[in-house]
# Entry
Amino acid sequence: MLRGPWRWLSGWDVMVTRPLALLLLVAACVLGFVALSDEVHEGETQDIDERIVRSLRREEDPAMPRGPWWLAETARDVTSLGGAPVLSLITVAVCGFLLVARRYRTSLFVFSATATGWLLNGVLKNLFHRPRPSVVPHLTETMSTSFPSGHAMLSAITYLTLGALLAQFAEQRRVKVYILSVALLLSVLVGCTRVYLGVHYPTDVLGGWVAGLAWSLLVTVAARSVRRRSPALREEARRPVQ
# Structure
């Protein structure tokens, strides 16, 4: 039994490991995304979005971001963690590790969950087709529409899905919390840099986070449901990594 400052993890562990609780979280995320996308589509958020983006630039020169000289370059480095090349390399590396460890079914599931999440992002972008911010110059290149943020959504899908997978190998709750916290932090940092670089509105990033979280939670529920029904997957999950 946990004692001291880690006692709260017992309640956390129960909440995030029960399928019903996870499904309720998925439903909350979906409803939140629908409400946000409706506001964005009607233009209700446009004014506050533009104000926030402009506030991150110097008044005398909108092409110059606020903060020390090194912050913009750091933001470009961090934002690359949510780009397709980096996320693809991470996903392939993890799937390769699972194949080497003879966890073939788990590798296929991780690849399928990530790939379909990426397809979902493309569908949502084409559905809303929101233009990129034009109130300030962009500090990095862009290739698609704005809502929801692909970097925010794909980093949430990839890092949280892989974080949930790694957390299954950890026995201590505090280790699980650490892994999931790092995954969440990476997604948050990537999303914040998109606004700082002027290539996304805050609501684009918020929509990406919510959609990505919903997908990763849904994948977690699906993984546990399949594992309960598949003796081979249960055996694979219990097998030590050699």
Summary: The radius of gyration is 19 Å. The longest helix spans residues 202-229. Strands lie at 57-58, 61-65.
